[in-house]
């Protein structure tokens, strides 16, 4: 028993000492090496198939094509009998609903379809499935200090990321496995007009399992929860 206790204390001491020595950018580089060892994200051109499960709605399936070199993005979603499509080709935007492209303003408004929303989806999916590589983007500020935290009973090395005003106001935390540097959790908070975190805002996302897409290790399952009360929002499942 004494040996076990001593070993545990030694591991904790080494872990704390290591997290104080390594910098935020060092952890990020190691995480990127784990997820994208061949540096393929910059030329990513592939298709993602995602099923979204939520407690209050029927499942939504999505086909997502991201072509970074050609600046193209395509999203096709289906929930029940409604099929919507967004096709972005640089500055060009095409929207369709159940196969029809000549849509009235009333129909677009009813189904919340717009080119602005298409770009939001593009940024959303490119950001989340491009992590942690996207943390190298211009305007992202990786804080130097690496925190050691236990979350849901597991130890993590945690990076804090904030953004230049032109990019965003949220504060993000990224949780990495201290042995492999795999990204296993991320979390964000909203801020007030002074830039202080609103503690009852935002969400955390638990990442489990992986799929290898175009040589990149991506989270297969992402489960979303509110920070304030651990309320469950839904789960995204990535399929090949």
Shape: globular
Question: Span between N and C termini?
Answer: 46 Å
Number of helices: 4
Chain-averaged pLDDT = 93
Structural class comes to alpha+beta
**Strand segment count:** 13
Largest sheet: 13 strands, antiparallel
| Rg calculated over all Cα atoms | 20 Å
Low-confidence runs (pLDDT<50, min 5 residues)?
none
| Helix share bin | 10-25%
DSSP strand content: 35-45%
Order of helical and strand elements = HHEEEEEHHEEEEEEEE
User: How many domains?
Assistant: 2
How would you summarize the topology of this molecule?
Blueprint: H1 2-21, H2 24-35, E1 45-54, E2 57-67, E3 72-79, E4 82-89, E5 92-97, H3 105-110, H4 115-129, E6 140-142, E7 147-151, E8 154-163, E9 171-176, E10 183-189, E11 203-213, E12 216-226, E13 232-239
């Amino acid at each position: 028993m004494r040996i076990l206790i001593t070993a545990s204390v030694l591991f904790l001491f080494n872990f704390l000492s290591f997290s104080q020595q390594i910098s935020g950018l060092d952890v990020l580089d190691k995480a990127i090496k784990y997820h994208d060892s061949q540096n393929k994200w910059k030329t990513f051109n592939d298709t993602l198939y995602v099923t979204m499960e939520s407690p209050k709605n029927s499942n939504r399936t999505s086909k997502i094509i991201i072509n970074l070199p050609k600046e193209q993005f395509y999203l096709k979603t289906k929930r029940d009998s409604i099929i919507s499509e967004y096709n972005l080709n640089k500055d060009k935007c095409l929207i369709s609903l159940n196969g029809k492209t000549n849509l009235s303003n009333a129909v677009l408004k009813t189904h919340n379809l717009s080119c602005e929303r298409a770009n939001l989806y593009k940024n959303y999916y490119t950001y989340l499935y491009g992590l942690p590589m996207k943390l190298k983007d211009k305007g992202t500020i990786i804080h130097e200090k690496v925190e050691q935290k236990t979350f849901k009973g597991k130890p993590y090395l945690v990076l804090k990321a904030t953004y230049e005003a032109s990019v965003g106001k949220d504060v993000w935390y990224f949780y990495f496995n201290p042995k492999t540097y795999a990204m296993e959790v991320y979390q964000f908070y909203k801020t007030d007009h002074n830039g202080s975190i609103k503690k009852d805002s935002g969400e955390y996302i638990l990442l489990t399992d992986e799929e290898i897409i175009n040589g990149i290790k991506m989270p297969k399952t992402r489960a979303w929860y509110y920070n304030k009360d651990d309320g469950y929002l839904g789960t995204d499942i990535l399929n090949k």
